[in-house]
Amino acid sequence: MKVLVTGGAGLVGSYSCIFFAKQGHEVIAVDNFMRGKIFDESGSTSGNADMLRKHFSNIKFHEIDIRDTEKLKPLIKGSDIIIHTAAQPSHPKSIEIPLEDFSINAYGTLNLLELTKKHADNAIFVFTSTNKVYGENPNRLRITEKETRYDYAEINGVDESMPLDNTMHTPFGVSKVAADLYCQEYAHLYGLKTGIFRLGCITGPMAKAVELHNWEPYFVKANIEGKTLNIYGFKGKQVRDVIDARDLVLAFEEFIKKPRAGEAYNMGGGRKNSISLLESFKIIESITGKPMKHMMKEAREGDHQVYISDLSKFKSHYPKWGIRIYLEEIFTDLYNSFTDKSFFEGMLKSEFE
Ligand SMILES: NC(=O)c1ccc[n+]([C@@H]2O[C@H](COP(=O)([O-])OP(=O)(O)OC[C@H]3O[C@@H](n4cnc5c(N)ncnc54)[C@H](O)[C@@H]3O)[C@@H](O)[C@H]2O)c1
Q1: Domain count across the chain
Q2: 48 CA to centre of ligand 1 in angstroms
Q3: Cα gap 162→135, rounded to integer Å
Q4: 326: domain CATH number?
């Protein structure tokens, strides 16, 4: 099969490439490596592309912008599966660059959908949306305060009935709402087999962490380097649900085996993989043996006080899927990825076997 992965050098994109390459498929990875420009060189994903090129002869990288219709056309033609992960991925960054954010996230996605409709209308199209489509609505849920975390007072997690509008989103949340709805629309109106994954916090060793994106590896790296972290609001008790990108790719696989066109799914680590920032300090300290250093700052726009995905809808449609990688292993893997030179070699060999 021909699998096209946009953002193929990024965190989710690179694990998607590895997964399909290991299954023996022809993988076309599209990435213009602009992550290093959106943030800075420390956030560049080009090293991931070099690693994948070296290890897999069936992954071909194309340095192309997802907004470039003419260059994408021949690549999309005949694709069986499209995994669309390319994005401006940071909500605080989007406040500085709303036009670029819209152009990549909203227009770029529409461009891909239109190309898919014209040149690969039977392809299964997986879109990586975000929980930020719900804007600040999750902050209106009744919350209780516990010793090390906030939590929902009345629900286990956020399901897909959470409203999308009448709230502040940041430009990133808005551009992703547009893309999310376009993906649904192309299923309803044109019959494309789109699946929309509204993601919580995705992590994994292929993440190129910067302060504004991928907090888990950023925290681990800061601890190793003895750096002081900024914690934005909520006394460090804000809660996130963390999913390893490898578990996410296995969820994509389930959807691809039996696509339900136009469905949107909340997808993250769920309650078992939920953690507050303060609680993450404890895990990281126990792995590295070094104290976390942090200072409290004002809360940022668009941050959730507590976000835990309710995974019931996805699990009811795809009962074979479940979380395999839990928090202790996630943070240990991140630590090893920074400290063990042979880590990536081993990971590329053993992953998805
Ligand atoms: N990582 C998370 O916690 C998280 C949470 C919610 C949603 N998501 C979504 O999941 C997707 C993947 O996230 P990620 O963490 O892997 O992101 P990432 O930043 O690691 O990877 C994105 C890749 O897309 C590339 N890219 C950006 N603009 C491009 C363009 N115009 N043309 C071609 N390539 C371009 C970047 O160079 C980068 O390699 C994104 O759509 C993101 O919004 C991620």
Answers
A1: 1
A2: 13
A3: 10
A4: 3.40.50.720
